[in-house]
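Deliverable D2.4 — example input (structure tokens):
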């Protein structure tokens, strides 16, 4: 069993119309042997499992061995700029999954991808992902 220390929240940085097949093709085009996420929240609220939790995904370089990675489809506006465009259904699906994961990994930190580089210093953020403050939003879970 892997020692899970962090649960990272991501956005796919894609259109909300992006399909699972398109995401998997993107990971393959990057030469990755595993998807970037264990779970993906679709705009309609479906949570799609891409990878077993015992396997390592490619979500946050340097942290994947001890992490579970979750993404929502979206995260950019029509101009390609970062934005929090989660649907109500995605928000609910992520909370539901995080409650389940918390029961399995009670000591894991829940954080956004961007927070690994600068949770206390927004100027240090190297990425906008997931385009909202996941640490604050999910802090009570």
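Example output (designed residues):
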């Amino acid at each position: 069993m892997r020692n899970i220390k962090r649960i990272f929240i991501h956005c796919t940085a894609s259109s909300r119309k992006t399909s699972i097949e398109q995401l998997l093709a993107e990971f393959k085009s990057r030469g990755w042997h595993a998807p970037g996420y264990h779970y993906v929240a679709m705009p309609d609220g479906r949570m799609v499992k891409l990878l077993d939790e015992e396997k390592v995904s490619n979500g946050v370089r340097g942290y994947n061995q001890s992490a579970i990675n979750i993404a929502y489809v979206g995260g950019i506006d029509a101009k390609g700029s970062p934005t929090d465009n989660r649907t109500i259904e995605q928000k609910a699906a992520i909370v539901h999954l995080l409650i389940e994961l918390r029961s399995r990994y009670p000591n894991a930190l829940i954080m956004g991808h961007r927070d690994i580089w600068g949770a206390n210093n927004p100027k240090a953020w190297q990425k906008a992902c997931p385009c909202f403050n996941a640490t604050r939003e999910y802090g009570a879970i």
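Helices lie at 20-29, 88-104, 115-118, 134-137.
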